[in-house]
Design goal:
The protein is mainly alpha-helical. 28% of the residues lie in helices and 0% in strands.
């Protein structure tokens, strides 16, 4: 355990920090991105398609949900 920091429960603090850093944007980073408005650019933009793409409607049913 030399040089490593552990909690009383035995959790390796440095390992948790490393995993958190590689898990994606933090809560505060997301808040900052949302505060920029609807045109804030994501790291990778995904092309959006209309919701009715690939929808097959059945005319025999009363409601087409």
């Amino acid at each position: 355990m030399e040089g490593k920091k552990y909690t009383k429960a035995g959790t390796n603090i440095e390992e948790v920090k490393r995993l958190n850093a590689s898990s994606g944007p933090s809560y505060n980073e997301m808040l900052a991105a949302l505060a920029q408005g609807p045109r804030a650019k994501a790291k990778e933009e995904i092309a959006a398609e209309p919701l009715d793409v690939n929808v097959v409607k059945d005319s025999t049913k009363k409601n087409n949900y």
